[in-house]
Amino acid sequence: MKKMHHLQIEPGQIGEFVIIPGDPGRCHLIADHFENPQLIAQSREYVTYTGKYEGLTVSVTSTGMGCPSAAIALEELIMSGAKYLVRLGTTGALQKNIHLGEIIISTSAVRLEGTSVEYIPIEFPAVADLDIIDALVKATQEKKLKSHIGIIMSHDAFYKGSVFADPDFLKREQVWIDSNVLSVENESSALFTIGYLRKVKVGTILTVVANHLTREVITDGEKIDPIFHQMTDICLEAFKNIGKE
Amino acid sequence: MEQIQYHIRCKKGEVNKAVLLPGDIERADYIGTKFFRNSEKIIENREFHIYNGSYENKPVAVCSTGIGCMSAAVAIEELTNIGCKYFIRVGTCGSLSPEIYPGDIIIATGAVRGDGASKEYVPIEYPAVADYRTVTALKNRAKKESTNHGLGIIRTHDAFYMESPFAFGDYKKRVAIWTEAGVLAIENEASALFVIGSLRKVQVGAILVAAGNLITGKKGTKNELQKSVDKAITIAAGALVDLQEGKEKKI
Predict the structure, then answer these.
(1) Which of A132, B35, B146, B208 is most enclosed, with most CB atoms within 10 A?
(2) How many whole angstroms separate alpha carbon A199 and alpha carbon A83?
């Protein structure tokens, strides 16, 4: 079997259950939760490990930042046999009541990016899969962790919509703040859209590393690691419950 | 708001907070009189017929929206103004999937925003997503009723005579893009209801009966469809009961 053009993986080398973080540097942290994790491939921003969890074959593949590279990762993972995928990443909050370190589970995403529009007209809703949402919510509740559940926004230009952007960024984001969008990130809307078109189940769980209204931000990556470990546990428990059904 | 709402002619406290939203006036009358106990007609103005009643001993209501997002948006805005919190659209649709037959039931997770009303509220890239707790409540009640159902994205649009079995010209070509995308069915109100639900922080879902199939041209008999509509109403009213009791959390 030919290797996938970008991911450099082959069908059979990954499980049906895949965690997809943005950062290739975090893949090994996630793979540490697997039994017997094996590094499968490392190519560009794509790092893939496969291992076992409670009898399931599970994998982790980084997507890189943004929908163009995330869409490639998702397409090639699907071609390699992935059926259940959870994006695990970071986000900037757009609401005052959402604090640093808290968890967001996305039901759907604003399509403020260019990739998904090449797939299907903009009026198509980017919605997460209900089974994945249910499983993530349940696993988060079982860990007694607080989560915010709702609509997020995905966009392409970090320096137009983040705490590091020009001083006017909140003016541009006001429409989303007023529309009860919980937070901003860069991959979910294309992942949800393509997931629906390809008939695989995709969801997103995020931790808040900035708040656009208070301008607070976590810059020290290591401070985020403990939350990443908790979210990895949540994803794996969610996969286990889906696997049982 | 103590004020009487402009179109639905009701004020705060006059309509129970969990509301079924059929499009058809007659279906509102049918639900109010045949499905609710202690039914009371509240108002009849334009295309808005409103009844209060109880279902499984919980207070519920029904309000017809008329056809299309324009009047549906008016209904949900004014009902929200007077304190309503849970909304389930119950109606009919045209199937866009060869696998969904006339009489089949569909629960929507989201809607393509092919309507005009929701665009006045928020830019088009914002998702028309059903409230996930309401979707879960509908799913659970459908399971209880042993009813098979489709679950997924539907398309909402404005021009019936462009995309329906009664449409002019090659309507199949116009809807092909949505069929290929796995969109289950087509109807006229859900996207604006979902968007306004998210904006105003009220919970909105939709359960629909496929009246016909746009791809195969098959239509259901009146009798078959009525049975399915009755089932959809039963599931939706049950979901409103569970949502008020917080039962849908037991996923």
Answers:
(1) B208
(2) 8
* Residue B212 phi, psi dihedral angles, 5° rounding: -155, 175
pLDDT band at B249 (very low <50, low <70, confident <90, very high): low
Which residues face B113 on adjacent strands? B156
Opening angle at CA B85, ends B83 and B88, nearest 5 = 130
Residues of chain A below pLDDT 70: 1
Amino acid at B18: A
How far apart CA A231 and CA B107 sit, in angstroms, is 30
Give residue A206's identity as a one-letter amino acid code: L
- What is the arithmetic mean of pLDDT over B206-211? 97
B55-85: b (≥16 Cβ within 10 Å) or e: beebbbbbbbbbbbbbbbbbbbbbbbbbebb
How far does the CA of residue B241 sit from the closest CA of chain A (Å)? 20
Give the Cα separation of A101 and A127 in Å (integer): 24
- Who's near B66: CB < 8 A, 6+ residues apart? B23, B25, B46, B47, B48, B72, B75
Q: What is the DSSP string of chain A?
A: -PPPTTT---TTSS-SEEEEES-GGGHHHHHTTSEEEEEEEEETTEEEEEEEETTEEEEEE---SSHHHHHHHHHHHHHTT--EEEEEEEEEE-STT--TT-EEEEEEEEEESSHHHHHS-TTS-EE--HHHHHHHHHHHHHTT--EEEEEEEEES-GGGSSTTS-TTHHHHHHHHHHTT--EEESSHHHHHHHHHHTT-EEEEEEEEEEETTT--B---HHHHHHHHHHHHHHHHHHHHHHHH-
Contact call for residues A40 and A31 (beta carbons, < 8 A): no
Q: Which of B126, B182, B251 lies closest to A134 in CB terms?
A: B251
- The pLDDT value recorded for residue B146 is 85
Neighbours of B169 (CB within 10 A): 9
For residues A48 and A163, the answer to whether their CB atoms sit within 8 Å is no
Who among A107, A111, A197 is closest to B125 (CB)? A111
Distance in Å, alpha carbon of B64 to nearest chain A alpha carbon:
25
- C-beta atoms of B132 and A122 within 8 A: no
Q: Which of B153, B152, B171, B169 is nearest to B212 (CA)?
A: B171
Question: Between B146 and B198, where is the model more confident?
Answer: B198
Rg (alpha carbons) of chain B, rounded to whole number? 17
CA distances from B80 to A172, A233, B133 (A): 28, 39, 18
- Contact call for B125 and A110, based on CB within 8 A: yes
**How many Å lie between the alpha carbon of A240 and the closest alpha carbon of chain B?**
15
Write the ipTM. Answer: 0.88
Distance separating alpha carbons of residues B192 and A239, to the nearest angstrom? 33
Q: Please name the residues in contact with B29: beta carbons below 8 A apart, sequence gap of 6 or more.
A: B49, B51
